């Protein structure tokens, strides 16, 4: 929601920033509307003017996280690197996130664990993000070799494992293992393409 000048409402931005911080660090179900209102320093009426219900606030939180990740990937793609290097750079940005202070795992996997019903708007927001990510990885892997879908699934699974493990122990060996896994995946995919080309010749 914007004001007459086309700017995002300060109250909405503050509510979303507050909810994002608390939802990510403490979980979603455990956080009540009263706490968000108090910490954002707004009234309940203001919250409900911008977000009709808590689910709307949660979906907006996930949409903001989705936009941030898409922005990171777009920045990598804009560098115009060869497809394997683009995928390495995307993996590197994921590893950087895991190493960052306050990392608490994947916001989307965390939300899905709290909202397992596929018909729920929160779960749908999670799936929309994951479908975009898988599609993006598939598109870049297709520039290395076909079929790209199985390798993209492996990439996503490696990412999920690293994100889930990265907040449980020292992130450095987890990131190293993840990046080595991506490197091995790219080499295997490229070797498979080379072998296929030789066979066809």
TrEMBL record:
InterPro entries: Homeodomain-like_sf, HTH-type_TetR-like_transc_reg, HTH_TetR, Tet_transcr_reg_TetR-rel_C_sf
Swiss-Prot/TrEMBL keywords: DNA-binding
Domain of life (superkingdom): Bacteria
Matching PROSITE patterns: HTH_TETR_2 (PS50977)
Residue ranges occupied by any HTH tetR-type domain in the UniProt entry: 9-69
Residues annotated to bind DNA: 32-51
A Pfam family reported for this protein in Swiss-Prot or TrEMBL: TetR_N
Entry protein name: HTH-type transcriptional regulator YjdC
Species annotation: Kibdelosporangium persicum
